[in-house]
Amino acid sequence: MGQINVIDTNIEGVRIIEPKVFGDHRGWFYESFADRDYRAAGVDVTFVQDNQSFSKEKGTLRGIHFQNGEHAQAKLVRCTRGSVIDYAVDLRKGSPTYLKWESVELSAENKKQFFIPRGFGHAFLTLTDDVEFCYKADNYYNYEADRSIRYSDPDIAIEWPKDLELILSEKDETAPLLKDSDCSFVY
């Protein structure tokens, strides 16, 4: 493949992508996205929307988020300032990896990316202050389809770092458990 190295995870379709970074005494350069390389690597989606977020404090937890039904989104995410642990949760009923999750550290330094297919919940936790996080999505945001699952859902049992005090929005703090949600993903 061109300018990327793709690492398959234990969940089919969820991939860690390492771009080839070219550097010298002046700094560095890399292609953050080239459609031909991603399609050749099995990330065969058409991205239609880019999003960017900023989190001020270390310990900020965003998620577990997804868009339900026909508004589901595949995402390609990366951290452009600071660092995070990023999580993908398989929410597809009937999947051999249903309720399993994968995580990867994404940082401005390591420049890794994480591909999360449709049918997955997504969350990230900031490991530093002043984090900027970028998302490519293959479907437009839809307010009515926006859903959250409680970060502490015991059926998912994400192992969050124990040394961080979590900072949550009201939406994430009061999100329902998966068993109480209307998540409609099917494998």
Describe, in plain words, how this protein is organized in 3D.
With 187 residues, this protein is mainly beta. The chain has a single domain, classed as Jelly Rolls (Sandwich), CATH 2.60.120. The protein is built from 2 helices and 13 strands. The protein has helices at 35-40, 170-173; strands spanning 4-8, 15-19, 22-24, 27-29, 49-55, 61-67, 75-81, 83-90, 101-107, 113-116, 120-126, 131-137, 146-148. The strands form 3 sheets. It has a 6-stranded antiparallel beta sheet, with no helix packed on it. The chain has a 5-stranded antiparallel beta sheet with strand order 9-8-11-6-13, with no helix packed on it. A two-stranded antiparallel sheet has the order 3-4. It is globular. 34% of the residues are buried. The mean pLDDT is 96.
